[in-house]
Every structure is written in structure tokens, then in C-alpha cells.
Amino acid sequence: MQSQESGVHYSRWDSSSRDEVSMTAMSSSEEASCYRRISQKLCSGKLGIAMKVLGGVALFWIIFILGYITGYYVHKCK
Question: Checking phi first, is residue 9 left (phi over 0); if not, alpha (psi -120 to 50) or beta?
Fold first, then answer.
């Protein structure tokens, strides 16, 4: 027997007096397959290579800017 995970979504509309509550149940294997499908799409093939390159470039610039700011305050003349 698979474990069931449930979710409750509550939304309230400003213009009307009705509240909407929806409940869904999703098994852990369905949720895992959804995440696996997304990760395979984003981490493999040409799109995966592009994501890794963009992530590396973004990480480089973050470290560069933090180092520049740190160096500015460390070597600042008083």
C-alpha cells in the first residue's frame, strides 16, 4: 500500500462572499515522478548544458562582486 499525501488549498475571493476549498490527494510515487521528469528535462540534453553554463556564470559573478566589495572595505585607506 502506498502512502497518500493530501493537500488543502483555500482561496477567498474579495468580490464575492463565497470561499473555495479544494482538497487533493497525491501519492508519493506520482509526486516523485513529477520531480524526476522536471529534473531530467532541466538537467539533461542541450537545455541541461545551458542551465549549467548559466549557473556557473551567475556563480562566478556573485563571487566576483562579493570579493570586490570585500576587497574595497579591507584595503580602504583611512
Answer: beta
